[in-house]
Write a structure and sequence with these properties.
This protein has about 120 residues and is an all-beta fold. It is built from no helices and eleven strands. Helices cover about 0% and strands about 55% of the residues. Strand 9 and strand 10 form a beta hairpin. The radius of gyration is 13 Å and the shape is globular.
């Protein structure tokens, strides 16, 4: 069993930055990802990282703007989001992945946090 507790998020102007954090408890040796969802759309993976941190994934929509990282000593995964755009507005979820690779199956989800980017 894994529990994921998220922090961060909120309201920011376009061009600004936010950092999301996700702290895990329980069985913490997982690959992890960050996803986002807007009403009426499927949840989209916006970053993934292996447990050792050697491999990462970003979709083209966020590549060069978002950075996923982790501190295994703190059981925490981060999502640094820079140059935010209004279209980044969504509820963001951290996840403990099942394996590695698309379609990014998930074993456990965090509680979700709202990110709103104003124009």
């Amino acid at each position: 069993q894994v529990q994921l507790v998220q922090s961060g998020g909120g309201l920011v102007q376009a061009g600004g930055s936010l950092r999301l954090s996700c702290t895990a408890s329980g069985r913490t040796f997982n690959n992890n990802g960050w996803f986002r969802q807007t009403p009426g759309k499927e949840r989209e993976c916006v970053g993934a990282i292996t447990y050792g941190g050697s491999d990462t994934y970003y979709p083209d929509s966020v590549k060069g703007r978002f950075t996923i990282s982790r501190d295994n000593g703190k059981n925490t995964v981060y999502l640094q989001m820079n140059n935010l755009k209004p279209e980044d507005t969504a509820v963001y979820y951290c996840a403990a992945l099942r394996g590695w690779g698309k379609p990014w199956p998930v074993n456990y989800w965090g509680q979700g946090t709202q990110v709103t980017v104003s124009s």
